[in-house]
Structures are given as structure tokens and as C-alpha cells.
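Input C-alpha cells:
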């Protein structure tokens, strides 16, 4: 067992208001900011490490295989069968930087917001190309297992999928800042593992659905400024008394 450290020691992960170097914010940290300024501040300014979670290895495997599958059609410059089935005049988009864009650890897609000196970045799953409108179309793969059918009307209505929509809004915003023509319409390529087989038999069958989402990027600019103001703030933002986790920590702190 190794001793767990509470605080980060990598300097690039911690905001320093006294330097002129740009500071990187991933789209997941941006989402954390939207959810709670205090948690975001404790993480990015104070350096308090979030509790880690185990990797989603099955979901990641589906993502990896889908990337290979779409790369096959990308190489051929031909539409993937799902594009044909959905009457979309699309092909997988090819770009020499695609592998970097797909890897958030290598920077992903990114831009420097000059007003705030923040670099906003994120790793995309895929980009398709709309041949009718000559625009990039952002695509995110989602693997799941649900007994409920995946439909366009229900998929994005659940409250906990707000993060999916925010993710797409941010990707479109970044790519536009990178000067690409990007469609408002994005797609979730949802792979739902079916539970109705009689036995496992070393395989899981998936049903795939393409769920469109019309992005809205109007809110992003003001939130980046708000995020910068939070980073520059000398005081830790207030506790949210509606947050179960914070109330647990606050209550428990008397006993530690
Ligand atoms: S209220 Fe507390 S625990 Fe909850 S998200 Fe904010 S800082 Fe984190």
C-alpha cells in the first residue's frame, strides 16, 4: 500500500496567478467549474486531489474498436454504413492532426482564449464531414447497457446527461475557435449492450443508435471569464449546502 498524498505536486496542474504562462483547462475541469466553483477552486488553485475512480475499461474498449472501425472507412474516404442507414451524406473526416485531437493527454483540440490567458482543450472521439454543407460534425461514442430503448427523444432528457451536452457545446466552440466550419448538429453514437441473450458465450451484442444533438455555444464565453475570475479569487468559494458530499465532509471533519 502506498501512502496517498492529498495535494498535487505537478506545478502545471495548479493555477498560479503570478505567472504570464497560459493555464490549461480541460473540458472536464470546465464542467467541474460549472457544477461547483468551490470544488474546482480546491482542485485547480489549492491543488487538492479529487478522489480517483477506476478506469471504465469496457467502455474504453468499445471506443478503441469504434475508432479502428471508423478509421477503416476514413482511409477509404467512404461513408460508414451507419451514415448510409441514417441518410447522411457524410464521410469520416480526415486530418493529419486527428490522432492528437483524439488524445486529451497530448492536448486534444485546443485554443488559447487571449482575454483570460486560458487554454481550453479536450479529446474528441471522432469527427465526420458533412458533404452537403462542407462542415465538420463532432461525434462522441457512448457505450452503455440499458434495458430501455435508446431514442432521440429520451436519450438526452435525463438530468445526468447534461454533461454530455456541455461536452459537445465545448467541442464545437473549440473547433470554431480553431477556425473550422463546424455544424451545430453533433451526434452521439450510442452502443447499447443487450441483456436478452440466453447466455454470455464470450460475447456481448450491442445495438447502436445515432442520437443528434443541436449544440448551443452562446453561454461559453461568459463562463470562461467567470472561471478566470474564480481562479484569480483570493478566497475559497462558499460551500454549497445542497451538496451531499460537502455536507458529509463538513459533518465528518469534527471527528477526524
Ligand atoms: S459543495 Fe463541496 S463537495 Fe460539493 S461539489 Fe462543491 S466543494 Fe465539492
Amino acid at each position: 500500500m502506498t501512502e496517498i498524498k492529498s495535494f498535487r505536486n505537478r506545478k502545471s496542474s495548479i493555477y498560479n496567478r503570478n505567472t504570464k504562462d497560459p493555464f490549461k483547462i480541460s473540458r472536464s475541469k470546465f464542467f467541474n467549474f460549472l457544477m461547483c466553483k468551490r470544488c474546482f477552486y480546491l482542485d485547480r488553485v489549492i491543488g487538492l486531489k479529487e478522489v480517483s475512480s477506476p478506469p471504465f475499461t469496457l467502455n474504453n474498449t468499445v471506443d478503441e474498436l469504434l475508432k479502428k472501425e471508423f478509421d477503416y472507412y476514413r482511409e477509404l474516404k467512404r461513408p460508414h454504413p451507419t451514415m448510409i442507414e441514417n441518410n447522411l451524406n457524410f464521410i469520416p473526416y480526415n486530418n493529419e492532426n486527428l490522432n492528437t485531437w483524439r488524445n486529451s493527454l497530448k492536448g486534444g483540440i485546443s485554443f488559447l482564449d487571449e482575454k483570460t490567458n486560458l487554454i481550453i482543450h479536450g479529446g474528441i472521439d471522432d469527427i465526420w464531414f458533412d458533404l452537403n454543407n462542407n462542415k465538420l460534425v463532432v461525434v462522441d461514442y457512448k457505450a452503455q447497457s440499458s434495458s430501455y430503448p435508446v431514442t432521440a427523444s429520451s436519450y438526452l432528457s435525463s438530468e445526468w446527461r447534461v454533461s454530455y451536452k456541455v461536452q459537445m457545446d465545448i467541442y464545437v466552440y473549440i473547433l470554431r475557435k480553431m477556425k473550422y466550419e463546424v455544424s451545430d448538429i453533433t451526434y452521439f453514437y450510442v452502443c447499447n449492450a443487450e441483456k436478452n441473450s440466453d447466455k454470455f458465450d464470450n460475447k456481448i451484442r450491442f445495438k447502436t443508435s445515432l442520437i443528434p444533438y443541436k449544440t448551443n455555444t452562446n453561454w461559453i464565453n461568459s463562463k470562461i471569464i467567470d472561471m478566470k475570475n474564480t481562479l484569480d479569487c483570493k478566497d475559497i468559494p462558499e460551500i454549497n449546502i445542497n451538496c451531499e458530499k460537502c455536507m458529509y465532509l463538513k459533518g465528518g471533519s469534527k471527528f477526524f
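The pocket of iron/sulfur cluster is lined by residues 36, 38-39, 239-240, 243, 245-246 (CB under 6 Å). The longest helix spans residues 57-76.
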